[in-house]
Structure formats: C-alpha cells, structure tokens
Amino acid sequence: MSDVLRVIYLITCREGEDPEDKARGIALEQSAELPSRCIPEHVYDQVVPRIVTLEPISAGRYQLVLDFPEAITGYEPTQLINNLFGNISLKSGIRLHDVEWTPKLLSALGGPRFGTSGVRRLLGADNRPLTSTALKPLGLDTKTLAGYCTDFAHGGIDLIKDDHGLCNQATSPYLERLQACQDAVNEANAATGGNSLYLPNVTAPRGQLEQRLEAAQQAGCKAVLICPFITGLDALIWARDNYDLALMAHPAFAGAVAGAEHGIDPALQLGEITRLFGADMVVYTNAEGRFPTYDQELCDRINDRLWRPLGDIRPALPTPGGGVDAARAPYWVERYGPDVVLLIGGSLYAQGDLRAAARRLQDVVEGR
User: Fold this and answer.
1) What average pLDDT does the segment 338-367 reach?
2) What confidence score (pLDDT) does residue 1 get?
3) Are the CB atoms for 222 and 196 separated by under 8 Å?
4) Is 16:93 a contact under the CB 8 Å cutoff?
C-alpha cells in the first residue's frame, strides 16, 4: 500500500530473550510508546506498526519486517528518523537494515538539489570520474592552505575541499580562509581554463552554519562540505532549500550508530538516507583504506544506494576516501565507473610536487 512505510530490522536475541516479545516491543516503542493494553483500540490501529514477518536468519538472529502507517511521521524528516530508530537506538541487538520508501515521504525528503548531473554541469565534466582532495593538516596558516589550492587547481583537481577538521581555528579563521582559497582557485581557473571548485567546511552550530553558508555563497563558491551527523541530518535539507550550493556530506560521527548487530546499516545510512536528505556527494571510507570495517561489499552497497532509481530523487555521487592511494586510481576508475568522486589526500601530499601529483591523477580519470 502506498501509505505504508515498510521497514526491515535485523534483531539479535540474547539467551532467554524472546524474539516475538522483542519484535512487539520495537513496534510499540517506535510508535505509541505504551503497553498495548493502555492504547485505545482505534489509536492502536492508526499508529502501531504491524508485524509482517519475523523469520530466523541464523542462530539468535531474526529478520523483522514492520509496516508503519506513514502518517505517524507527520511527513517531517526529523520525526521520520525518530520513528525509524529513535528510542530503540537506546536498546541493543536491533539493526535498521532497509526501508521501502513511500511516494509521499520521498517527496517530503526531496533528495539532492544538483545530483550527479548537476555537479557535472558545475565542473563541465561529462562521463568521467571526478577527483577531490582535502586541505590538510589542521594547524596550517591560511597562506599555506591557499597555496595548496593554487597547486591542486593548476593540476586540475575537480573538488578541493577543506578537511572536515578545519573550522574557525586561530591558525586559519573561516572567513579569511574562505576568501583566500576561493580567490586562489579562481585565479588558477582563469590561468588554466579549468573549472576546479573550492568547498569550504561549513559545519558549525546552527546560527554559525547559516553565516558560513551565506558567506560561502557570497564568495562565489558553488559547493560546500558539511558533516550532517554532527549538525543534524535536517541541516542538509535546510541548506539545500536555502542556498544554491552543491552539498558534499562527510561521515564524521556516522559510525556512532552503525554497529555490527545494533544501529543503522551504513549502506542505508550513507547511501540512501543521506542522499534523501539532500546530499549531492557522500563521502565514505573506501575498501583498502585505513578503516577496515568498510570492506568492498559494503562500499559496493553504498554506491548502489546512491545510484539506484528512487522515484524522482536524483542520484548522488559516491565519494570514497579515507586512505585511497593515488597509485590505485586506475583500479578504482575501472571498478566504480564514471559516476564517482575519488577523494585522495595523503598519497598526493606524499609525492611532494602537488601540481604534478594532481595532474597525474587527472590524467588517469580523463583517460590520458
């Protein structure tokens, strides 16, 4: 039914824990939040999810399918997350595995403003993988960071972003860095005919977030970096709706709700929920990088959820990073195809000559 939100959980039961009791508890906790005997019958039917199936999948593990009346979300993004994984996040052995979205909820969420094709238009880059790098390490002064922008832009890097740890530190205050780095990229583009973009990190408390987004747009930026699991996912929707800026979402703090037996499946969390809330590009930690829990199977599932058809929602760009080696770029280009952003930092810096390193990477993605 189009007005029913189907949600799939994987539950793990400890010794002596009854899976049917746990399933009923999840349904009640995520809706009426009362024992069933205390809920008026007409209210129960309207708000409490229906248990569709509860099936064993391995020793002590079960797949639970619930049908939620979509109206209990109020069609509000924040309440949707509360219904999907609110109070039960405080329990154990419950993993939000999948959601079959309804047309009304897809419309309420909206997805990316630009999406894959829109980001390509900003860069003038058709049908090839895109590149990104990060300005780091934390503690450098603005002049040095702007110099890196100059080198990376001359080398042709598409998306030159602040590292997610850069905010308003005294070593490089936000407004000073914003203007210096944007000017450096503009000058390099004018000299080369390129279309590199600088992405300032706008992550901040809500009042400052608005100020930083406004400053980024006034400075001429076309895209920004934001950490939505720190600001709150709804900040993505708010930024998408109020600013003409492509949004690159960084996964900092996302792992806090992505355990093996409890939490939110990272493919759903990063690949689909973050996309639905408005991210045009989603950073995740790639296989072979320095975060071993993200294996190739998981990375492929994240990519699939960012790319796959989802009503009228635009596809978003997977942005694998977290230790991607520039020497392995040809492999990732072949494996992931054109609709990807390769986020490469440390292995570019390690080469010393940033312009030459950036140009070698661009030669790979541009097929030269």
Assistant:
1) 96
2) 59
3) no
4) no
